[in-house]
Fold:
Amino acid sequence: MKAHHNIVIVGGGNAGISTAAQLLRQDSTLDVAILDGSKKHYYQPAWTLVGGGEFNIQDTARDEASVIPTGAKWIQQMVSAFLPEENTITLADGSTLGYNYLIVAPGIQLNWSDVKGLKENLGKNGVCSNYSFESAPYTWECIQNTKGGKALFTNPNTPIKCGGAPQKIMYLAADYFKKHQVSTQVELWSGGTRVFGVEKYENTLKKVIARYGIHTQFFVKLAEIDGPAKKAKFVGIGEGNKDQEYWVEYDMIHVTPPQSAPDFIKNSPLANATGWVDVEKFTLQHVKYKNIFGCGDAAGLPVSRTGAAIRKQVPVLVENLLALMKGEPLKGVYSGYSSCPIITGYDQLVLAEFDYNNNPMETFPFDQSKERWSMYQMKKYLLPYLYWNQILPGRM
Structure:
């Protein structure tokens, strides 16, 4: 293995692959290496549809080798440590890799073990989650097998990838129960403070919640699952209910696990005080190490962590990195754009698009806060096609 590359990209997910592809489209002679030990690449936004019985899980996975851009070197290892003062990375096997420029895009870490009993019960006892390839299909089983009682949907008090995902599957389940005349009480137990951070879209979602008769509880986090007894323990985290405990019986519970930056980021010199890659929010350049950039879910940006956000971050990063390499000023600016296609039922979707200041940044010439059949079709059919054929190859 070559011990040094001009540009090293940590992470072979959406952010890492599309960044490499766009760099090589700009200059095919660039020496680019991608560090990732994963053998599979997943289109994770479709896992909500898998959980709702609308998508085949096998269609969300491809071999990682198939998405590595032509001209990039794939190093099939994970990172153990960063030595930015020396411009080197320590790999999992103990070897070191040098770089001139580093792009850090390893994605987000799912902390299943932070909830007592979650790992042991996931995939059985009515405990499901769309947040892994292995467990997403069981969500659909749970929805179909629920004949009454309570269906709980959790949202942790940590940043998560696709902030709307915990609600999307909840609305699909509620719509399924309604259409099949199943009398099940649907409940959202959330560590957040409100339904959605952008008022325009939140107003619509409040009406959706009322339509399905969903009960909501905020300022709580899931602490424990007793699978055999089908009970979940929540604890209060707000000033008004701090340390209060709730044991709630369920027939099914969809869990969104607590999430964080990967441990090798949190424990590195690249991290900010909360563990994320410490980048400047407009240029995506590291605040201390100027030859390092970050983007995607692990970046310390005050933004919803979505594939749509990555699609807007990558061109800015590419423009600024190439400018830095030429000794030119960094002119690329990321506005904080993110998008959350919020499924509100079968064949219904609200397309939320917004910036750092939670101001709507809508693409289409109509009110995107309204539930639309057309936007659902876009989510189900168009976006997966664009991901594999346009976004990953660096064409958009």
Notes: The radius of gyration is 21 Å. The domain at 4-108+261-336 is CATH 3.50.50.60 (FAD/NAD(P)-binding domain). The chain has nine helices and 21 strands. Residues 39 and 64 are 5 Å apart (CA to CA).
